[in-house]
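User: Run a structure prediction on this.
Assistant: Running it now.
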Amino acid sequence: MTLELGTTKILARVEDGVGWITINQPERRNAMSLEMWQGLGAAAEAMQADPAVRVVVLHGAGGQSFAAGADISEFEQHRANAEQKLRYAEIAARAHRGLARLDKPLIAMVQGFCIGGGLALALAADLRFAGQGSRFGIPAARLGLGYEYEGLAALARVVGPAAAKDLLFSARQIEADEALRLGLVNHLLPAVQLEQAVRDYAARVAANAPLTVQAAKAAVRLFERYSAADDSAVAAAVDRCFDSADYQEGRRAFMEKRSPIFQGR
């Protein structure tokens, strides 16, 4: 069964108890546009509401990229300052909330690039299966933008604070073998075997007692939930990033395919 989402850039279908959500902009390495964030939120909500869905798989179309972050070509129009960032974040937050509220297991099937906002999506999953040759990273420090607390807390919970700082401070990309070693990836397979391995695993989960699986997910989620401490200082620091000259320079440098020159203001 195929679901209607009002966009062709996010696809959703249900097969034998498994919900499949496809990020479908391969010509741009599945970079996430506002339209796609809206579609992803609708897809996640539909999967949660469908009692026939026992497990959900999130993946990218084309075999070359899971998701290469946000579509930076939209930033000048939709994310050029802190005020615009707030509206953009509200739309993206619906997608993240939809994934976070799934009481069914969510599997990220990663093939190719899993960068920035794409890595945040993969971190929203309960498990991450990756193909050899995949690459992971958060390039925020090369663009001058700030990442919200919740996403960075998710990264630190998965790989630990020291590894999270390494990835964030250096903005480097890591290969799948290192991602496996850090615990960022649960299962690493040859690319040609990845989809079948995910299908087999999802079918196994779908055949298990759904209430037991849901209860297990709820218990682990409660255990790992990030602190509800005041994060207003982090939010203010993120806003300063989006209103900075450095962020303007980072966007321009990306578009002009050159190295940015940051001034710290």
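The beta strands are 10-15, 18-23, 55-60, 65-68, 106-110, 113-115, 127-131, 135-137, 173-175, 187-189.
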